[in-house]
Design goal:
mainly alpha, 5 strands, 8 helices
Length: about 220
């Protein structure tokens, strides 16, 4: 992974996921925390350094289990948004915990993506950012369901990859709409970087700028 991708990913993902210090239910009813990090099954939640709101004391495993189960069964919160779950539990992480969780999950995704996409290490930062974004929303093995995208990426056809990168389900999850827009920008920018690597170094991220393809005579 290029360093610029790791550096910008918290800011990039927070625009679509928010930054939430307490557990909440995502739109599918899965317990989640931080910047869109699933903590389902419960073992993922038990591994985190939860503190109790108010006292700041470290939560016990029994407390985490009971509150996780309560939240998981509060299915009405799945479509109420993360803020609605703030008072459903007293479990809290701090910002450093949230960042550490994001980077740990990102590293796991990176291991899969590097094996999935031929030539991964040579992809520009914009291309890697867009692919990491797709993995964040769908899982690191998403390419199994996106063969046309995978072929375009491995061929360096990034404008084509932009046409094949749309994450389905926008009608159910409106949050995917801006993510899909951002992903397409990343891949179009990757195409421009490939065309002019001296002006657009591959180890730099251009997003959120959208680079325009030069008109050809």
């Amino acid at each position: 992974m290029r360093a610029a991708v790791r550096e910008i990913f918290p800011e990039f993902s927070q625009k679509f996921e928010g930054r939430v210090l307490w557990p909440y239910l995502d739109i599918e009813g899965y317990v989640t925390v931080g910047i869109g990090c699933l903590i389902h099954p419960i073992a993922l939640a038990l591994a985190l350094p939860w503190k109790l709101a108010g006292s700041g004391a470290r939560a016990t495993l029994l407390e985490v289990t009971a509150q996780w189960e309560y939240l998981k069964n509060s299915t009405e919160l799945a479509r109420a948004g993360a803020q609605a779950a703030q008072h459903a539990t007293t479990l809290r992480l701090n910002d450093a915990d949230v960042d550490a969780l994001l980077f740990a999950r990102m590293a796991l995704n990176e291991a899969v993506l590097a094996k999935t996409f031929a030539g991964w290490s040579e992809y520009s930062a914009d291309a890697q950012l867009g692919i990491h974004s797709m993995a964040w929303a769908m899982g690191a093995d998403f390419a199994k369901g996106y063969p046309h995208f995978k072929r375009a990426a491995e061929a360096g056809s990034w404008d084509e990859a932009a046409d094949e990168c749309t994450i389905g389900g926008e009608s159910k999850n409106a949050g995917l709409i801006p993510r899909n827009v951002a992903n397409r920008i990343c891949f179009h920018n990757a195409a421009r970087a490939l065309e002019n690597p001296k002006a657009l170094p591959p180890d730099q991220v251009s997003w959120p700028l959208e680079l325009v393809k030069e008109a050809r005579p």
